[in-house]
Amino acid sequence: MPWGLHTKDTPGKGRILIVDDEDHVRKVLRLTLTKAGYDVVEADHGGKAIEVIGSDDNMLMVDVVICDIRMPKINGIEAIAFFRQQYPSVSVVVLTGYPDVNLATDLIKQGVVDYLVKPVDQVKLLATVEAAMEHRTALKYHH
What we know:
The protein is α/β, with parallel strands linked by helices and 143 residues long.
């Protein structure tokens, strides 16, 4: 199946927002997720992510946010705090090149679903996103 056949109108498996300042990281994640049937939106920093998720036509249509921690402008910690507060039903997965156990523990206490370390293994990525989707569905029906 060629890439790019997913449009906003195609009911895929769900929409994922990738927030990372490194183009190649976003590209690898996007290709893996698109191939698996997800609709992918990208942002290159936290501020952009907040803009994307807050624009009217996308409002709450994002199911899962995969967010890097170390980014210019608004970093991942700030962006994640914003998502958790404004969009509690959106699952957040942290992506980092610098694993930090204390940080991971803090983020999971804040409601982050999982923690991926770069370079991300494709199988792990898809399993994590699937779990995050299920988590979101559970949240949706729980409220």
